Amino acid sequence: MTIRSFNPPVRTLMGPGPADVHPRVLAALARPTIGHLDPAFVGMMDEVKDLLRTAFRTQNALTMPVSAPGSAGMETCFVNLVEPGDEVVVCINGVFGGRMKENVERAGGVPIVVQGTWGRAVDPDQVADTLARHPNARLLAFVQAETSTGAQSDARALAEIARRHDCLTIVDAVTALGGSPLEVDAWGLDAVYSGSQKCLSCVPGLAPVTFNERALDKIRARQTKVQSWFLDLNLVMGYWSGEQKRSYHHTAPVNALYALHESLVMLAEEGVEAAWKRHAHHHLALRAGLETLGLELIVPESERLPQLNSVAVPAGIDEAALRARLLSRYNLELGAGLGDLAGKVWRIGLMGYSSRPANILLCLGAMASELDTMGYRADAGAAIAAARAVLDQAA
Ligand SMILES: *Cc1c(COP(=O)(O)O)cnc(C)c1O
To answer: Which terminal Cβ of the chain has fewer Cβ within 10 Å, N or C?
Structure first.
C-alpha cells in the first residue's frame, strides 16, 4: 500500500483544545519559510512580543513564545525559578496543578501541596494558612483556568496573598489568555505561561510566557545552573531579546510564529476586553441551551470558566458513546472528563474562534438529537431557541 498525503477531516473543535483555527491563521502558516535570523523575521518576532504584551496586559520586557507547547511554558517557569531545596506551595484542584507538583520535584524543589477539590476554585484562605505555616516558601504556583474541570481561580487574590508572604507567583494561564480576564501587571503576577491553541486559536506548539523583574531577579540570583539547556532563560533571552546582537540558540518554528502573529493581530483587532466579553456572552448562551436540556454544569456559577464548560453526564447515558456519535455524524469534537471526572462529564470548549454562535447552535442541536435517540428526552428546538435568545441580547 502506498502512503499518500494526509488530508485530515474538517472538524469543529469544542473540546479542551486545540480550538478551531481561523482560516486567516492557517493561511499565515502557509507563507514562505524564511531564515530565523532574516531581518524580516526578526522584525516580525518583535511584533509578536509586543502583541503578547497586549494580550497579557503587561509591560514585561521578557515576554515571548517558547518554541514548544504549553507544557514547555510550564516547565520554563519551574526550571528557571525553582532551585534545589526551594519550598514551593502548589495548589492542586485538577490535572494541571498535579503537573506543577511534578515539575517542582523534578527541579529539585520541595512541593507543599494545597489540596483543593476538583471542579472548584483554589481556596484563598487555605493558601494563606499554608503560606503562614511555611514561612520559608518563596514561590506559590496555581492554575488560573483549570481546563480539566472548568473552574476559574481568583488569580488577583492569590497573588496578593503571595506578596504578603514574600512569595513569587507562577501562574498557569494556558486556557485563560485571550478568553477571560487576565491582568499580569495590575494583579502583580510574576511568572505566567500560556499556550497557542486554546483561546488564542492558533495552531498548537507555542507557549507564550512573561516574567517580571521580581522573577528575573530570582533567576539572576540562582546559585545553580538551570538544569535544562533548552529552557534556560539566560540563554533564550540572548535569542529573543538580544536587540542588535541576536545570536543563534535554536531554529525558531518560523511558520508557527507567522500563525501566532496572525492570531494575535486578530485578538488586537477585536480588542482583548471585547474577546473576554464574547467568551462570557457565548458561555451564557450555551448554558441556557444546556439548562433547557436539563443538563447541569458541575462548577458553581461564581467559579465557572466561560471557555470550558464541564457538563454532568446524565444517569444511564454512555459518555464516550455520545462523543463518538458527535464526531462521526457531525464532525464535532467534545472533550472527555479527566482524572476524578473521567466518565462523569463532557467538557465543552468555547475557546477563541470556536466561541461563536454557529458552534453553540450546532453543539446543542447535535447533543440534543443524539441524546434523544439514546433514551434521554431532549428537545433540540427548545435548546436552540434558549441559546438563540441569549445570543440575541447585546453582549
Ligand atoms: C492545555 C493546558 C496545558 C498544556 O498545554 P499543552 O500545549 O497541551 O502542552 C497546561 N495547562 C493548562 C491549564 C492547559 O489547559
So the answer is: N
Question: Which residues lie with the beta carbon below 6 Å from any ligand 1 atom?
Answer: 17, 69-71, 74, 96, 143, 145, 147, 172, 174-175, 195, 204
Cα separations in angstroms, 267 against 15, 261, 274: 21, 10, 9
Which residues form the domain of 323? 271-391
Convert the pLDDT of each residue in 162-213 to its tens digit: 999 999 999 999 999 999 999 999 999 999 999 999 999 999 999 999 999 9
| Pair (236, 289) in one structural domain | no
| Residues 31 and 85 placed together within one structural domain of the fold | yes
Q: In the structure, how many helices (H) and strands (E) does the chain have?
A: 13, 13
Query: What's the CA gap between 255 and 29, in Å, rounded?
Result: 5
Residue whose CA is at the smallest distance from ligand 1 atom 15: 147
pLDDT digits (tens, 9 = 90+) for 216-274: 999 999 999 999 999 999 888 777 776 656 778 899 999 999 999 999 999 999 999 99
Kindly give the number of the ligand 1 atom that is closest to the alpha carbon of 94: 13
Contact yes or no for 384/54 (Cβ under 8 A): no
Which residue lies with its CA nearest to atom 6 of ligand 1?
A: 70
Cell of 392: 440575541
| Structural domain ending residue among the three candidates 226, 252, 268 | 268
The structure's pTM equals 0.97
**pLDDT mean values, one per 10 residues, the chain (395 residues):** 95 98 98 95 96 98 97 98 98 97 98 97 98 98 98 98 98 98 98 98 98 96 95 84 72 97 98 98 98 98 98 97 98 95 97 98 98 97 98 85
Q: Is residue 129 part of a domain?
A: yes
Using the 3D structure, point to which of 248, 268, 288 is the last residue of a domain: 268
- What is the C-alpha to C-alpha distance for residues 46 and 5, in angstroms, rounded to an integer? 35
Instruction: Judge whether 57 is annotated as a binding position.
Output: no
